[in-house]
Amino acid sequence: MDLARFLGSRALRFALLCVSTASLLSPLAAQAVPAFARQTGQNCVACHAGGNFPDLTPYGRIFKLTGYTIGERALPLSAMAVASYNKTNNTSEVGGLVDVTATYPKDGNVIFSTASLFLAGKVTDNIGGFVQITYNNYDHQNEDSHWVGHTVSDNLDIRYADRLIDPKQDLIFGATMNNNPGVQDPWNSTPAWGYNVVPGSTGPATTPLLAGGLAQNVAGAGAYVYWDRTIYAELSGYATANGVWSFMSHGFNTGRGDQQIVKGTNPYWRLALTREWGPHNAMIGTFGMNTDLYPDANDPSGPTDRFRDIGFDAQYQYLLDPHTVTATATYITEKHIYASTEPAPLDPDGSLGLGLPDTSGSDKLDMFRAKVSYVYQAKYGGSLSFFNVTGSANTALQTAANDPNNPGTVAGEPLGSLNGSPATRGWTAEATWTPLQNARIGLQYTWFNKFNGGTNNYDGFGRNASDNNTLFLYVWGAI
Amino acid sequence: MVLSSLTLAVAAAAFGAGCSTIERSRNLNNPAVPAQTLALQVCSICHGVDGNAASPNFPSLAAQQPAYVVEQLTSFRGHNRLDPAGFEYMWGLSRGLTDEQIKGLAAYYASQKSVPPAYRTGNPQRLSDGKEIFERGVPDKNIPACMECHGTDGQGKDNFPRVANQHADYLVKQLNVFQRTDERPEGAVMKVIAHGLTPENIEAVAAYLEAVAAK
Fold first, then answer.
1. pTM of the model
2. Which residues of B touch A234 (CB under 8 A)?
3. pLDDT of A434-460, one tens digit each?
4. Domains and CATH numbers, chain B
5. Closest Cα of chain B to A287: distance in Å?
6. Which residues of chain A neighbour B26 with C-beta distances below 8 Å?
7. Secondary structure of residue A232 in the 3-state scheme
């Protein structure tokens, strides 16, 4: 196994961890779309529960499942921007060897973080879409340490849909083409729409691949049915978004390290049971995906890592003006079977692991998330969410290792792990104020009780989980 | 592989587009779309296929007086009905409707059978008080009986809407709109009548009407 392959396989989780960390400033989230409001002529509250994006009402879910085709064609353009302030509890130097400013970029500064352009609306009576393009103002730093912006494809969902309805039957059926497994889902307990939707929100560093790990890396197509507003079923397949479909992954590439390559077409499935009664509605469901991922995106050949993700989720809503309650719970269990368990070479730059062999040929990663939100008068809101990630420890994920400047010594990694465990647990509380239906101010605080396997000294250099507690203030606006 | 499957999907979509039929359109700005199609494809999402809305957030329209439905939809379309719960949802949906489509929608709902809501938000202990107000009014405040205009069974007449089997929560909110605002000028007569109703009166009459046997 060559070095490049090692970097892709043994350290894949850690690489994903780094990507997740980078996503502290990542724009991979879509918001309410005023273009849809112009199309239907309705206020945001018609589709968004309590006017609170991204939570959908039963009407909003039908709007999505019928291909965004309700209403009349209107100017299909919208834009949004997010300004934010992020303050991490402790960003001080750890181990004396690591440049923490790279780990906590722009911490303590008010920044204009992202802006998005939406192409959204109905095309015909059966075809509609939602296409988001996002500019990330703080994408990376150049050689002069100046921040450089970058424009990327964001969530995309183009549909064909039809509905057979009369007093005796109701069948919605359609096809979706999208670039993020789960983004096509109309419930808010799925990873794409349930948690950390506001750009810049923080959360667990390591999450299952299905929880956004393939977003904007893949192109997928699938078919779905929703029968009698009771049973929803969907089957989709995802492959690497390249060639003619590379517009779905625009701005992502293997050179940047944010484009992964999957082998063939990878199946995604979804089943949900729903019920509406009075002001209540509820859903219980399951979803999953099998993914064959090349360990080295730069050399997509040979054996692949296999990810088997199975999720169970539930959602409850109470909608009766002026009160809106949305509660979601999501559990995803993932088995990651490595392409190879060969001993790995030492990591020369000290950032991607200890370089020990895997402790087993596979790892397990479980994630549980739950969230309850309340909105009053579609204006004042609050939410509380809980996250708990557990999984098998792997020596390949240990980061207290191998200082590149002093071979044979060790260096700390602020978001690394001493014991190679992904275990992370914490809470996020948020208060929101929506003075106008297309403007929102939010204040979040995230507490970490455990981070990457430990509460105290999780990185081996004295850093505690609570050091990652984060205050996050944002202002969102859309037109 | 993905190329072929995606191409297939796009081809299916294009084929589907060619097969799209006006009988299943959700276009609210096409005069050719039949009213019944709009009722089923769009209105049913909130008001129910048969006009009996499951959620008390939305009024039931089954067996509603057609003149009243025409008046309301016309009022929404002309931005004359200003209560937030109404305009947030209905101004946009009604903006492209033709007079013919509005009449068709009114006829569709008038022909449906009304049933009491399965989920009730009214206080059942107040049913007798509500019945009293509905049938006799509040004499010491000179509030007339509701049934004088809305019919002995709450079935409505012409522009006076059917109120029987309506969601109590909806009735309470609308009576408050009449009592406290001028957001429904077409119902100005109700402002005078609702003026003297106490919150308890409103809760009671709404609970009674929600639960009253359908006729």
1. 0.88
2. none
3. 998 889 999 999 999 999 899 998 887
4. 21-110 (1.10.760.10), 124-211 (1.10.760.10)
5. 21
6. 66, 69-71, 125, 163
7. strand
